[in-house]
Amino acid sequence: MSKDYYEILGVTKGASKDEIKKAFHKLAHKYHPDKNKGDDKKFKEVNEAYQTLSDDQKRAQYDQFGSNFQSGGFQGNQGGFGGFDPSGFAQQGFDMGDLGDIFSDFFAGGMGGGRSQPRRGRDISTEITVSFAEAVFGVERRVLIAKTSKCLTCDGVGAKPGTSMKKCSTCNGKGQIHETKRSFLGTFSSTKLCDTCGGTGEVPSTPCATCHGAGVLRREEEVSIKIPAGMNDGEMVRLSGMGEAISHGTSGDLYIKINVMPHPTFRREGHNLAMNLDIKLSEALLGGERTIETLDGKLSVKIPESVAPNEILRVREKGVPQGKNKRGDLMIKLVIKMPHKLSKRAREAVEQLRAEDL
After folding, report:
1. What are the residues whose beta carbons fall under 8 Å from the beta carbon of 334, sequence distance 6 or more?
2. What is the Cα–Cα distance from 299 to 293, expressed in whole angstroms?
3. Which residues lie across from 273 on neighbouring strands?
4. How far apart are CA 187 and CA 94, in angstroms?
5. Please, what sign has the CA dihedral across residues 299, 300, 304, 307?
6. CA angle, corner 341, sides to 336 and 346, nearest 5?
């Protein structure tokens, strides 16, 4: 059954890549399996939709052929059934039975004799918290994650170290099993991976004592996470192949949500950093020089004479990194602090200013 990836992510068909990415981040966080109300099935469904719609080529194929575009046969009119729509038979009262499975196997390689797609491990996700400065400049973290990983004893082979492999008796060493299915449309032959050996054609003669021949087991694994400069709160980093491993298959991906701690002074405005600087009335009138603490260290800032309230001073290249050799700016908002009480001398000075119509 074709899936509506746009509906799964809650976006329109004309949604931009940014809208699709934001929708995915929100739903992935909501359905994360490790959360109290997480949903592993929904999480996989959301990830499948995102992996398709975030890729221009896959999205174009999906828009044309639906979610079955990856099955292998729907490429224009070559090798297919033209405008044939099996759903028409269901509308006329035919029992479709396993027709969907027949077409899936047929186009997945039954005609051409190609191999089925290898199995893939589960995608997983976690969260880490970083400081404001670490999010701006980037940082590398190492975290322990409990997941299904490759067995270190047998290196994922499944055999006891020093022992040999033997031919799989299920597929006779071919790694594939041929099946024939019949329907009212005719007889269809398909080829699929052998479940016993996972398509390798071999099984351990003596299984590994640690993983019992599976090649994978659940354990804690230390993962190095490189957080690039300029990350925003709530963004995600994807580590391909660092998800859960699966016997005779490829590992899934690891998604890391980045939580950024707020800073007492600075805030993000795109690639710029913004802050408020309180100055005295005398500094606003006469100018001056102040030393401030930035993410790069101490910085001397010159305040010009006669600045207006909330005037912005721009310090070039002291903001968030953009690419290799470019950074945003530091925007300093000057907030003039009015005195609560004037001394006698200060009042006389202000009176003198008023006399000069200033």
Report:
1. 277, 279, 284, 303, 307, 309, 310, 311, 312, 313
2. 6
3. 268, 330
4. 18
5. positive
6. 85
Question: What's the average model confidence in pLDDT over 275-279?
Answer: 96
310 within 8 A of 334, measured Cβ to Cβ: yes
Nearest partner of 244 among 34, 37, 55, judged by Cα: 34
Angle at 36 between CA 129 and CA 140, to 5 degrees: 20
Phi/psi region, residue 273 (left: phi>0; alpha: psi -120 to 50; beta: rest), is beta
The per-residue pLDDT for 38 is 76
- List, for residues 133-180, the tens digit of each pLDDT value: 999 999 999 999 999 999 999 998 899 999 989 999 989 988 888 877
* Residue 18 pLDDT: 86
Q: What's the pLDDT score for residue 355?
A: 83
3-state secondary structure of 132: helix
192: Cβ contacts below 8 Å, ≥ 6 apart: 105, 108, 116, 176, 177, 179
Q: Which residues of 276-295 are buried (b: 16+ CB within 10 A; e: fewer)?
A: eeebeeebbeeeeeeeeebb
Per cent of the chain over pLDDT 70 is 82
The segment with the largest mean pLDDT, out of 27-31, 245-249, 272-276, is 272-276
Q: Where are the beta strands (DSSP E) in 137-253?
A: 139-150, 165-167, 176-183, 186-193, 202-204, 216-227, 236-239, 249-250
